[in-house]
Amino acid sequence: MPPVIETYFRTANAHDAQAVADCFAPDGVVVDEQREYRGPEAIRQWKDASNAQYAPHMEPLAMKEDSETGRTVVTASISGSFPGSPVDLKFAFTVEQGRIARLEIDF
């Protein structure tokens, strides 16, 4: 797993929204629940809100490199304060120059 993706999961589980945002490129994008968050401040706010609402904990289960798209796809078990917890979601990361350029969750 690329180091920045390991850092993403570690800091997300620590509920450190700023450290999560720091994993992303300056023009990085997160797509979650059909909404797009662009740039470090929007990503930090998204993660803060997610932490407050769901108190999520993520456990990566599997990873594969998609050679066609260049994405790293991680399947993770997500538990927290939401109906149906835990659930397995897919996280599709595009990493460029050691930073996350794009993250699509449960794409």
From TrEMBL:
UniProt-listed Pfam families: SnoaL_2
Domain SnoaL-like stretches = 5-102
Determine the domain of life of the protein's source.
Bacteria
Supply the InterPro entries for this chain: NTF2-like_dom_sf, SnoaL-like
Name of this chain's protein? SnoaL-like domain-containing protein
